[in-house]
Structures are given as structure tokens and as C-alpha cells.
Design a protein that fits this description.
The chain is of the alpha+beta class. Helix content is about 35%, strand content about 30%.
Length: about 220
């Protein structure tokens, strides 16, 4: 018998409530990250020694923030038979803590540059690891990104962090053969799955949002690298 900590009990309760209350549907896409890989390689080459550069997940957070700003309904919540549209774009980033899952928040991610987002996510992850994360840093999220790519996962279905409208599950960036202009060429591809609350977003809404995220990642200059 394993006794759950209070944090684990909270996670279990919230995930169960989400699946029971929010009608999930899922949309999958494959993102061509070849340009993003090249851009990150250039950033690493030009960065001062010892300075970290934005990760692919930082790029995903920024792309989602831009898409959320453009699609307010995706940046909403279902509450008491109504849809509340948030005025701020606060992207939660799922982080594995010791035997639990926490979601610190990058506040106003749509208004921050990629380097600032990168600095924020690194600082928040460090606080999660050393146990110094505070309740305000774990609240206020309007959308969530969950990335398991570092474990070699290609695709997965994430549970919506209700009352948010959606969560984006991100897989690994992996070289694969792809057809471009009628020819088979190697490309760096990444699988993503958007889980949506059908009370807030319909299929076409989710598809448009996911398409916009993919466009931003495939043309990373739009992320203001």
C-alpha cells in the first residue's frame, strides 16, 4: 500500500474531475521543425559561452501564446454554463515534481519575447525541483503545455487542466523522411496533440488553433527569435 501525499491526492482529484466533467476531444498534427532546429542551432552558435538558449518547448509556449491572443475563445474557461474569456494569456508548463505533477505559470506569455519566456520557464522549473515554488506561481494559468518529448514519446493525450479550454501535448523532435515538393527528404518532425473541452471549443475551432500553432513553429521568425 502506497499512501499518497496531499499534492498527489490533489492531482488525482483534479484529473479525475476533468475527465468526468469536461468532454475531451483530440486533434493531432505533425509539425515540421526543420527551420526551428536550424534557428536554434544558430542561436547556440552565437550565444556567449555558458548562456542557455530557448528550447523547443519555449518556442511551443510562445507559439501557443500568440495563437491564444488571436483566438480568445481558446483562452477561455467554462464556468456555470458560460464561457469566461480571460484578459491575460498565461501559459502553464507541466513539470514533473517528485512523484507528482505541477504546472507553474508563464504570465503574459504573449507579451514576452522568446528569451524572456525561456528564462521564466527555467527559473520556474528550478523552483519546482528545489521545492521553493509558491502558490501564486502555480495559479492563474489560462492554457497548458505538456511536453514528454525528452522521454522519446512521439504522441500522447493529455488531460485538460480544467476549467481551461485546452492543453497541448508535445512529443519529441525526430528526423524522419518526408515528401517535400514531390521528393523524399529528411525533415525534423514533431508530433503534437491538442485536447479540447467540447463545451468551449468545437472541432473547427480547435483545428484552426492547432493550424496556427503549427504555422508559427514552422516559420519561427514569427516567434521573434
Amino acid at each position: 500500500m502506497v499512501e499518497l501525499t496531499k499534492l498527489q491526492q490533489t492531482v488525482a482529484r483534479r484529473m479525475s474531475e476533468s475527465k468526468a466533467v469536461a468532454p475531451h476531444f483530440y486533434l493531432q498534427a505533425e509539425v515540421d521543425m526543420t527551420s526551428a532546429v536550424a534557428a536554434r542551432r544558430r542561436l547556440k552558435a552565437s550565444a556567449p559561452e555558458g548562456e542557455s538558449v530557448p528550447t523547443f518547448n519555449d518556442m511551443v509556449v510562445k507559439a501557443c501564446a500568440i495563437a491564444l491572443r488571436e483566438m480568445p475563445r481558446a483562452n477561455g474557461a467554462y464556468k456555470d454554463g458560460r464561457i469566461e474569456l480571460y484578459s491575460r494569456v498565461n501559459v502553464g508548463v507541466a513539470v514533473a515534481a517528485q512523484d507528482a505533477l505541477v504546472v507553474p505559470t508563464v504570465f503574459d506569455a504573449d507579451a514576452k519575447g522568446l528569451r524572456r519566456i525561456s528564462a521564466d520557464t527555467k527559473a520556474l522549473a528550478a523552483k519546482v525541483r528545489d521545492g521553493s515554488i509558491t502558490p501564486p506561481e502555480l495559479s492563474g494559468g489560462t492554457f497548458t503545455v505538456s511536453n514528454l518529448g525528452m522521454y522519446g514519446v512521439s504522441n500522447f493525450h493529455a488531460v485538460i487542466n480544467t476549467p481551461q479550454a485546452a492543453i497541448l501535448a508535445v512529443g519529441e523532435v525526430k528526423p524522419k523522411p518526408a515528401v517535400v515538393d514531390g521528393e523524399i527528404v529528411p525533415r525534423d518532425l514533431m508530433g503534437v496533440t491538442l485536447a479540447c473541452d467540447h463545451r468551449i471549443l468545437y472541432g473547427a475551432d480547435g483545428a484552426v488553433f492547432l493550424k496556427r500553432v503549427r504555422e508559427l513553429l514552422e516559420e519561427p521568425l514569427g516567434l521573434a527569435l
